[in-house]
Amino acid sequence: METAIPPHLLANPDIAEAESILRNCVHCGFCTATCPTYQLLGNELDGPRGRIYLIKDMLEGRAATERTRLHLDRCLTCRSCETTCPSGVQYGHLIDIGRQEIERRTVRPLGQRLLRRALLAVLPHPRRYAFALRLARPLGLLLPSSLRRKIPAAQQPGGRPPLRHARRVLLLEGCVQPASTPATNAAAARVLDRLGISAVSAPAACCGALHQHLSQAEAARTVMRSNIDNWWPLLEQGAEAIVVSASGCSQMVKEYGHLLRHDPDYAEKARRISGAARDLSEVIRAEDLAALKPVAGGLRVAYHSSCTLQHGQKLGGTVEDILRRCGHTLTDVPDSHLCCGAAGTYMLTQPELSQRLLDNKLTALQREQVDVIASANIGCQLHLASAAAVPVRHWIELLDS
Q1: CATH architecture of 290-399
Q2: Residue from 31, 108, 23 nearest 59 by CA
Q3: Which end of the chain is more exposed for a tag (fewer CB within 10 A), N or C?
Q4: pTM metric for this prediction
């Protein structure tokens, strides 16, 4: 693709990166076949190729409009298009840059601005979110049904084993997960312990993904720097990896090196942090799972492969293989490459499209009789659980006794 972006804009390294990505696109349109929003809406501008043209036009000097912002907002950032693209277009990075630019050039309606500020004032802050959740649970009957269904039920996580093994990893607690699904990391710590690995709990904190995907790039970098400062001493003390049980967060931490590559003070540390980051599934698959087989109860599992795992990290099939090795039966899930509609805050900022995607995904997951639906990401788990007819759990819980 030829571009004509003004030289003064190309002095910005993000815009220069966007131009490089744009030039890799060959207009083939293969991406539209696997784009969830294009399949729902049938509009070229609600598919990757159309959004690429919108970003190109904006960067070349054409007016950025509310219509441009609408089509960029509707993108789930699921990266299914990246899996499909024969030219290796890094669409995920491009859409982030495009959204940052549209935020700079346009003013959102007041309602949208207030919603986004409220989300960023609560969700990335573990204590604030936990307090809000404690209030929401007893007051749920006063909320609209669409919101009431999204309030997660309280969990009893159980205890965590002592740090008794020579092998140690740093286990990230996240921001929303400690209050919403504390059973996930508790189960992860117990499973890792049975495999001879002690999980050192990192302080609860957001990975930066919420800010990044709501186009607050500098705020996201501030979060990343803070996390690096907190995690660095633990790495220096011998943790062999930074393990993340939420696939959306593991994808984000793996991108620290890229997103902070121009920071003279943090570039090298960010590169090392990203190099040490592992999704929980990567750690488990590398171990001898014989010790786990006795606790795997032969459940019929409908597994939802999160976009951040299969498209963002290219780890599709990893969890499925682990579950089968541990004795579970996985059902066939049509269109397993498609997003469930959670996509971080998308379920709140684009509720209509998100609900349509959720309905389609649950139809696919529940087409056969299953005991449980499993996923690798907290956002997917909460979204699916809001309407599923069977329990929805993180896959690591199915390996825990």
Answers
A1: 3-Layer(aba) Sandwich (3.40)
A2: 23
A3: C
A4: 0.92
